[in-house]
Amino acid sequence: MYYYFYKLTAITQLVHHGMLFVPTGYSFGAGSPYGSETFTGDGSRQPTQLELEQAFHQGKYIATITKKLKGST
Predict the structure, then answer these.
(1) pLDDT 10s digits, 13-27
(2) Which InterPro entries match (predicted)?
(3) What is the DSSP track for 9-48?
(4) Which among 4, 52, 53, 55 is least buried, having the fewest CB atoms inside 10 angstroms?
(5) Measured distance between the N- and C-terminal CA atoms of the chain, rounded to whole angstroms
């Protein structure tokens, strides 16, 4: 539980400096609702296909929103 509070603290600080935060929500079974993540430690564990798909989805989602914001100026 502490792990998620730590993430929220970091996100709050970055948003304060103008970061655009676009979470993926609960649409995938990998990572967390805040976005894609994989902990590989010493490298013995590699990201699963689902984790890679979530990272790709999040990148595409952020790019789509950024493009819309840029077009609205």
Answers:
(1) 777 787 777 777 776
(2) Flavoprotein-like_sf
(3) HHHHHHHHTT------TTSSSSSBTTB-----TTTTS---
(4) 4
(5) 40
